[in-house]
């Protein structure tokens, strides 16, 4: 029996967060879905509760998502991180890979990959 | 008389010497008397005793007062000398006074002596004061930092002080008698001639030539010099060398012109950029969104057969719109500069340049990227961008190399091409806007920009700064 996975969605666009939530809800084994509009908010949530998966944008109002990625992987290496950004060229993908990202999806062209990746993650223990 | 007066008494009769000494004591003349009887001791005493006053008899063995006076004058010209003697002719006495003695007293009538001493000393004090005030004025004239030029009523030179001589490079003798205008340039001559009638003028800025042939600017102001009865006797000119000031002023004017030109250029550039963006947004995004709306409207009409096809079409349109948005945003300010930093941005820029312009490019960057201040990154990015733009516009090159080196605390960007090169007049032209823009950008972050180019041998743009 795999426990329910808690998800944290980080994006400064309310519309994107809403759509993401909608897409994710149908997946099985999802526990709490939390949302954050900036990195400060996100930091508080991660420090407070157990977060199993994070969906993270790169350009955020109070910082660079790639730096945040490094922080998450340092304080909670088991948390999976899915990068979700409009900066989807090879340099950014490579940088995210080097910083420990588990997945990288183009926000405009690959958004259906997010629920797909989440399904894979939640199936595991 | 406060301090004890030192009196040197030349007298061979010890009786007379004692007599006079007692007389002075009785008259309350506080003094220290040294009596000498011959030439040698007289001369020694002059140097060693250093008297304030000399009293001298007339006739001494192998010596007389005339000689004594001469010797005294040669040692200390202003030392008071009073002749005290027995009977002597009126003629002789007058000769003595003419020769420089202050007074003569008859031994038979010493009553005048104390006052004669006092008067002689007062005279000396007055002379000293006059001399020191003359000294002072002489110092003022000679040590003045301004040139002093005294002319007669025909404006011919009567006197110039040291500074004036230095300013024009001519000696006093060379300037004596020469007219003021003979030292001036043509246009300045006219200025002076029209200003002069009153002898007194405000500050005139005049061009003249030094003896060495150098052209300088001077500022001259004149005042009329009057004699004792209010008549004009000459002109006093005060002169300052303002060549440096004039040159600095010229530089300032040119600099202001340059700033104004640059501001105009920047304004124009901004307007052109805004126009370009507006056009792209309107032509690309505007049209695409309009197309999407039309397709959606068609959907609303519930054309069920084409439903799926229409949706697919709309999705494609949206994709193209997204592409345009990314393209326009990147053209304005590449996000990569903020997210990944300078090195990936430069690599990306050069890659795009090669792809779009078909120019063979080589990019060399360090393996690791240190923390670089944001403003510094932007500056390097923009200067590289500007250099590549210039290569496209002017160079006609087919090979470009972009290199970023970081050695210790120093970061250097070099953009070199094998194109036409820039003519040196253009490189040095302070009004060349493109280059000026790059130089100004560099200046803002305290970086050093060097552009080297030779016609036909390509161009090298090098930007260097400290990272801390």
How would you characterize this protein structure?
The complex is a heterodimer of chains A (125) and B (468). Chain A is α/β, with parallel strands linked by helices and 125 residues long. Chain A has 5 helices and 7 strands; from the N terminus they run E-H-E-H-E-E-E-H-E-H-E-H. Chain A has a single domain, classed as Response regulator (Rossmann fold). The longest helix of chain A has 12 residues. The model of chain A has no long low-confidence stretch (mean pLDDT 90). With 468 residues, chain B is of the alpha/beta class. Chain B folds into 4 domains: 136 residues, 3-Layer(aba) Sandwich (Rossmann fold), CATH 3.40.50; 98 residues, Beta-Lactamase; 84 residues; 133 residues, Heat Shock Protein 90 (2-Layer Sandwich). Chain B is 51% helix and 22% strand. Chain B is built from 15 helices and 17 strands. In chain B, the strands form 4 sheets. In chain B, strands 2-1-3-6-7 form a 5-stranded parallel beta sheet, with helices on both faces. A 5-stranded antiparallel beta sheet of chain B has the order 9-8-12-11-10, sandwiched between helices. The two termini of chain B are 76 Å apart. The mean pLDDT of chain B is 88. Classes of the chains: A alpha/beta (125), B alpha/beta (468). At the A-B interface, helix 4 of A face helix 10, helix 11 and helix 12 of B.
- Major beta sheet, strand line-up of chain A: 2-1-3-6-7
Into which percent range does the helicity of residues of chain A fall? 40-55%
Cα distance spanning the termini of chain A: 7 Å
**Residue fraction in strands of chain A:** 15-25%
Number of DSSP E strands of chain A: 7
How much strand content do the residues of chain B show?
Answer: 15-25%
Question: Could you name the CATH homologous superfamily of the largest domain in chain B?
Answer: Response regulator
Quickly count the domains of chain B. Answer: 4
Q: Under the CATH scheme, which architecture of the largest domain in chain B would be assigned?
A: 3-Layer(aba) Sandwich
For the record, what CATH class of the largest domain in chain B applies? Alpha Beta
Structural class by sheet pairing and helices of chain A: alpha/beta
């Amino acid at each position: 029996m795999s426990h329910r996975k808690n998800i944290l969605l980080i994006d400064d666009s309310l519309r994107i967060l809403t759509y993401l939530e909608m897409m994710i809800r149908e997946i099985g084994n999802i526990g709490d879905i939390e949302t954050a509009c900036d990195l400060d908010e996100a930091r508080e949530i991660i420090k407070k509760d157990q977060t199993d998966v994070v969906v993270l944008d790169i350009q955020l109002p109070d910082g660079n998502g790639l730096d945040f990625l490094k922080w998450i992987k340092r304080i909670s290496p088991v948390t999976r991180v899915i990068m979700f950004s409009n900066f989807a060229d090879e340099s950014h993908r490579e940088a995210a890979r080097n910083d420990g990202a588990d997945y990288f999806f183009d926000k405009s062209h690959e958004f259906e990959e997010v629920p797909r990746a989440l399904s894979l993650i939640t199936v595991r223990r | 008389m406060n301090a004890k007066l030192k009196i040197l008494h030349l007298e061979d009769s010890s009786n007379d010497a004692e007599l006079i000494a007692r007389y002075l004591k009785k008259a309350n003349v506080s003094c220290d008397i040294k009596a000498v009887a011959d030439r040698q001791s007289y001369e020694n005493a002059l140097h060693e005793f250093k008297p304030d006053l000399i009293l001298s008899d007339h006739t001494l063995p192998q010596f007389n007062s005339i000689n004594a006076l001469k010797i005294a004058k040669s040692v200390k010209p202003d030392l008071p000398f009073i002749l005290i003697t027995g009977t002597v002719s009126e003629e002789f006495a007058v000769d003595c006074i003419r020769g420089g003695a202050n007074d003569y007293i008859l031994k038979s009538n010493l009553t005048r002596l104390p006052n004669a001493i006092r008067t002689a000393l007062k005279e000396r004090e007055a002379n000293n004061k006059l001399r020191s005030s003359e000294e002072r004025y002489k110092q003022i004239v000679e040590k003045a930092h301004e040139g002093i030029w005294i002319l007669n009523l025909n404006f011919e030179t009567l006197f110039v002080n040291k500074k004036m001589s230095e300013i024009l490079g001519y000696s006093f003798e060379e300037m004596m008698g020469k007219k003021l205008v003979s030292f001036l340039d043509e246009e300045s001559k006219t200025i002076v001639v029209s200003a002069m009638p009153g002898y007194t003028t405000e500050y005139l800025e005049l061009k003249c030539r030094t003896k060495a042939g150098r052209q300088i600017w001077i500022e001259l102001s004149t005042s009329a010099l009057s004699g004792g009865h209010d008549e004009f006797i000459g002109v006093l000119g005060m002169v300052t060398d303002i060549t440096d000031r004039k040159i600095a002023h010229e530089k300032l004017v040119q600099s202001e012109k340059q700033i104004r030109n640059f501001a105009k250029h920047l304004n124009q550039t901004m307007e052109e950029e805004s126009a370009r963006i507006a056009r792209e947004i309107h032509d690309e995004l505007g049209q695409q969104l309009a197309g999407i709306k039309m397709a959606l409207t068609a959907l609303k009409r519930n054309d069920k057969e084409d439903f799926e096809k229409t949706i697919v079409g709309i999705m494609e349109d949206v994709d193209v719109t997204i592409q345009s948005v990314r393209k326009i945003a990147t053209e304005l300010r590449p996000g990569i500069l903020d997210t990944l930093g300078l090195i990936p941005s430069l690599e990306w820029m050069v890659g795009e340049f090669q792809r779009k312009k078909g120019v063979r490019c080589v990019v060399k960057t360090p393996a690791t990227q240190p923390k670089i201040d944001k403003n510094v990154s932007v500056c390097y990015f923009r200067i590289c961008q500007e250099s590549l733009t210039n290569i496209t516009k002017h160079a006609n090159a087919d090979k470009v190399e972009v290199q970023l080196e970081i050695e210790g605390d120093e970061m250097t960007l070099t953009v070199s091409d094998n194109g036409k090169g820039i003519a040196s007049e253009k490189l040095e032209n302070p009004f060349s806007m493109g280059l000026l823009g790059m130089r100004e950008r560099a200046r803002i972050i305290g970086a050093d920009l060097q552009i080297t180019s030779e016609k036909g041998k390509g161009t090298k743009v090098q930007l260097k700064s400290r990272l801390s």
